[in-house]
Design goal:
homotetramer, alpha/beta, seven-stranded parallel sheet, four-stranded mixed sheet, 39% helix, 17% strand
Chain lengths: 438, 438, 438, 438
């Protein structure tokens, strides 16, 4: 990463393309519409509410992040979306049942104006859903990429957006690992043409975005843009990418509490996590093959934070279990219950229970917004390929090949903020502070 | 703070003087005896189990902290203690009922060898206890200081300790604020001679330690060494000090979770905390005047972390309540229940409940050990006065006058580790990591 | 109690007078209006949804209770109320913020038509509230009784009610115990005339109701109708009475779980209960003298159920603590957290934690309705004085002098249902069931 | 059931045969040995600690149950057992790790004296275990029955027991439903001879017990004695039987809380239950086919209590989910977490969360003892076949064909106690109590 000589200004409109227009996407859009008219606060968004400390502690320099790095304004955001159901933004938002009626009514027209483009859909990747608004006339996967690229160009024309970013807000796909077809740009292009079964819808969108130089973040645990071919193409086309799987709810708290235990060298003997959720996400994850994709993403964070090989006495043998259960009475509200068995001084056992009554889309929406604005900024800085500093937002953060990504939320936050400081030329924060004492 | 040209080596024995030989002190001592014979692991102790990352992430340099900064070895530690009851270390440990019989039996002789010196005790500061092993022949508070200093010198002679540190492990005293008598060294000396009612037992011990150049940490929320006169004397006598109120249990978790919420700009509407505990600590805190001291210490952390004035939308109006209830069935096991009302995107409410079944002394003992070893190291580095980097261990961390101390556990940990790195001359860690990307 | 020869039919309108028109009263009224138009189900009400098993298990006779004993119909209910604020029923309901806007709007006119009569109010009994719509021109407490009686008679005239019942839905008063003035009808009448300080507003209303032969239930823990003079007057005037303190939320669950533990002879070592609530009730109970009244009512249930003197090994020494904390973020939603320390086989400890996210008025409203209909029925049966079988609804159930009331919810339910069966002449249920086996 | 003219006295020794000598059986035996020497209280046992109210409430007649119906004394109990591992009672108890060392040591000799007889074992019914101490020389299942009968007769001879009862304390078997072979005595006998695959070990023991006229209770959810052939044989041989699946932990609480909700006509929208347990039971249930057996037993209780067909508004459409996860850090301690979504007045939602930190064997052991003593008493009363009044102890209580068994713990308790009263000729309790009022 090179510190930019100049950062392109955020002039004109910023197009934000959302793949999947369900609860998360509609909650994001409605929120942006409400927030820019001052009707509701964009809580949860670092780009809208965050500040950044600069210089010595006693200087009290704390500008807003959006001012400090000149992010695009909410007023300049225009949305587009794809979905496998034809409902417009207002109907989809009502069906999602996340926001209250008075909120949806206040921005009804703006929501209703977002008509989804037909989605790329492969049944075998989402066994629990039946797509009815899909690009079923694409002859090959390569052709599907082409159709998406046409959609993008049309959106740019029609919306007048000068710059575009894209975020995957769609469903979890069944588990699949990268194989040969994902290994190089050429192999992937051949696979597209040959309708390779290992290529999923997420990858098709990603490939289209990269060719169009549209920064892209993957909010699901799907193999999407985290494979060699995509990383190479991103570099080649100078496009920033980030992923994967929005870090919300239970896993978010895991990456808060586990670093807390480790900070104090408190041992871990077991961590049992169960989730109940009742929205379409829960329905999709009720399918074991889809759950496996999610489970992999959720299980990885503890080992990465605790480093059992470094700390065998503390973390060498803990039992980690993650459950997700579809539970319709919850609706979009999601609930996690964690039982954490810890060990203290001399090995004496203690326990912690965390019950988190959260809301999936309420936690995810500000992440979508932040990623859109930060990816746009990254592109204007000339950054390309994996943006590790955006790992703050993901359950399975991407990092350079061979590098273990950080999962500790606090390390991720420092990395993000020091990246902003460094880009702009401000001193990095180290929290040393010896200068306050003689 | 000046980076030391040379750090004195940790040769010879290190005396550790504990004020108050109840559950915390006996659990600490028994643990040190067990750990150094390999009978139980010193979990929870950064000085015993912690590692520190040095250099680039891919260098994988992760030495143990105790090797990196050459801390005193557990083998060289000798204990002394004061208490207001005459039980020896073994009897006191049995009464405390924290450790299992087989653990106490394994180190019975070493524990029994610690006979408490008579304590300084003022009834009005601890209404719920009746001291029976006290320095009741001290004519004035100045005289009491002198008796403590004699105790210290005798302990050094008899134990053969080359260096000594001291930690307050005693009870919470009734609430008292600093006043004129605490404003200068001279005023305090006059107050001691005049038996000023505003001078508590904690302050008397602190004063003796400072005159004897013994680094001192205050584990209770008492006004102990956090007043102008003590800070001045610490500088004058080149003595490191730290405090106050060990950060364990519920407040520890508060300084883990609150930074997590803030990292993501999640709003807070209310935080209700209740504690039930059944040991002597709980009994003492059943007294409203004693509870007030503790409450002040516990309530402060949220505002300091959340900075409502910086973030009025998020933290401008939250309701914070802390309860402690004496509940004998719990014994030394302490239990916290927290209800946290949070606000997400557009202000939508969510809730978090944390139930922490912890053990007071099991969490506090490794802190006592770490503070003893780090304070000794600080003195060998030539550091004096407030050691802000040890704020990691305290509910009410001390900082230079005019400086707001950090309460965020993760900021505290970086400060601590970067202080170690800086002292030894290693690069500070900033988590920027742009060098891994082209 | 004599089985009635004949039960008067429920002809004409039934007036229901509510003392205090806050969250509970308005939620009750709105619910009755909604339910009788089929707009929302009267869940929680035994009189509306309950069935009663008759005869042998295999007969499958299970009529609805309201049909079995011919209760008054919701269609015949008319409401009246007193309050110390002048808001009409709609305004009061909106302020209470219990029900959603669409529910209130649907019955707005009916609610708005209920204009509160001026309340009897004595500041010293409710220190946290300031009454502004009060009978401040009553010269003596005797005069206040007279004013209430006039209100009642006017209500009957204006509403056309043929029968009237009354329920206290007002605030908790400061703690007061019965004394000489409460010992006989004459003493009480003298006390009224002399403005005796020991006579509270609740008692004044009760006295007026009894003289008017209006059955009365006391929903608060106040000394209201549970004293000798009132019990004597109730018999003399042939008026049924019941009380006191609606059993909702945490205490309701206590009288469910404690019988469960006792059924299995599981021991109890400690029960710690904390409540957070944010409505006017919480505000009133933030006053220690008011809390004491509530605490007495809440603490009593465990001993009464567990009978420590009968079971010293199991229940001879448990620690019971009840906390209520005013916590504005909760609004009318109330939350309880219980930690229950139990002992099993050979004394081995186990724990139970119950977190109840409930809603005060939602739980109380169906009780108000049931009491109104059952009290009316009791009067039509010729029952008078204490109706112990209605103890099912109360935290501090009333029983004949010298008799320990049952607190076990399941015993209370059997008592209630067997009272209905016995009154009508059906066989009592004993659950013996030997007849199904040869 | 006929009220007995005479109840045989409990003279001589009572043999108690336990099938499976794991955690539950050894905890039961150790407890009986400890309790009869006064070393630990037999908490959880109705036969040891329970009292029974007789007559009017103000008579205060409350004899102990064991005196009231003249149960066998603990002093007369002698144990025998079968197991598929050869460890003696002391070794097995140590391995189970339920009781503390000092408790096991105090009764070491008595425990060690119990040497298990070789078990009947069919791998396909318990896939996760490997039996090593089994009757592998039995040629057919009929032969296996014969071997068990020989074991029983030898036990009687050697122990000197005058009467014998038997309790299944073994593992859960894979799910199997009754089929033709279970339909009549003759069919079953033919199936035994033909080694019918549908006959499990539990059934073999049961058949042996019935032929030997030994009352038998089935503590697991296995198809054991709850099929037509066994019920017929039990009547024919005049043998009492009971089952199945000890009601402990989460399901116990379900049958406490669900009746509480129903008593008040509170609606249910969802009940999510998860269990974590770490003992052999958990390991066995990690096998899906075994879990299915348990799941059936656990799921049934709610519908049976709530009667959705009677109460469609309240219980017509609730979501019930039960999870069991093997979680080794818990050991024998079992933990349940329940989330209960309820509906109150007008359908407004509320929630309840129950976290039960229980101990499997500690809850089960007193049930084993009670069943042993009550079954012996039933036989002495001349009762035979299904003892529905013992349904109090089971998750899947047995009842006469065509009769829906009661699951409500409180109905079960009344049934049990009224059965005792009726047998002895005392008045049944109805809780009517009209006689206390004039």
């Amino acid at each position: 990463m090179q510190r930019p000589n100049r950062i392109e200004p955020a002039t004109g409109k910023l197009g934000v393309l959302l793949v999947g227009m369900g609860a998360v996407a509609t909650t994001t859009m409605a929120g942006v519409f409400l927030a820019r008219r001052g009707l509701a606060p964009p809580i949860g968004s670092l780009t809208q509410l965050g500040t950044i400390r600069l210089g010595r502690r006693d200087e009290r320099r704390m500008p807003r992040i959006q001012d400090f790095v000149a992010l695009a304004s909410l007023d300049d955001v225009v949305f587009g979306a794809w979905d496998i159901f034809p409902d417009d933004g207002y109907e989809a938002a009502k069906r999602a049942a996340v926001l209250e009626g008075h909120h949806l009514d206040a921005v009804r027209d703006e929501l209703a104006a977002v008509k989804p483009m037909k989605g790329v859909f492969y049944q075998e990747y989402v066994p629990r859903l039946r797509g009815v608004h899909v690009k079923d006339d694409a002859r090959t996967k390569l052709d599907a990429v082409e159709r998406v690229r046409e959609d993008i160009r049309r959106f740019k024309r029609e919306s007048g957006a000068e710059r575009v970013v894209a975020i995957w807000c769609g469903s979890t796909e069944t588990f699949t690992a990268a194989n040969g077809v994902h290994g190089s740009i050429e192999a992937f292009e051949r696979g597209l043409a040959a309708d390779d079964a290992a290529i999923s819808a997420t990858q098709i969108y990603a490939w289209a975005f990269l060719h169009e130089r549209i920064p892209f973040a993957n909010g699901a645990p799907n193999l999407g843009v985290d494979f060699a071919a995509a990383e190479l193409l991103a570099k080649e086309t100078q496009t920033p990418i980030a992923g994967k799987d929005f870090k919300t709810g239970q896993t978010l708290m895991k990456t808060v509490i586990a670093p807390g235990l480790k900070a104090r060298m408190i041992g871990l003997r077991g961590w049992y996590s169960t989730n109940i959720l009742g929205n379409r996400d829960g329905e999709v994850l009720d399918e074991p093959a889809s759950f496996k994709t999610k489970e992999q993403s959720k299980l990885g964070v503890l080992d990465a934070i605790l480093e059992p090989e470094q700390h065998p006495i503390l973390y060498g043998d803990y039992h980690h279990k993650v459950r997700i259960d579809y539970y319709p009475p919850r609706g979009d509200a999601k609930e996690g219950w964690d039982n954490i068995d810890i060990a203290g001084w001399l090995g004496y056992p203690m326990q912690m229970k965390l019950n988190f009554l959260c809301r999936d889309s309420i936690l995810a929406a500000p992440i979508v917004l932040d990623l859109a604005l930060f990816l746009d900024w990254a592109q204007r800085c000339g950054y390309r390929g994996i943006q590790e500093w955006l790992g703050f937002y993901f359950k399975s953060p991407m990092a350079a090949p061979g590098l273990q990504p950080d999962h500790d939320l606090f390390v991720q936050l420092i990395k993000l903020k020091n990246t902003l400081r460094w880009t702009v030329g401000e001193d990095l924060i180290t929290h040393l502070g010896h200068e306050y004492y003689d």
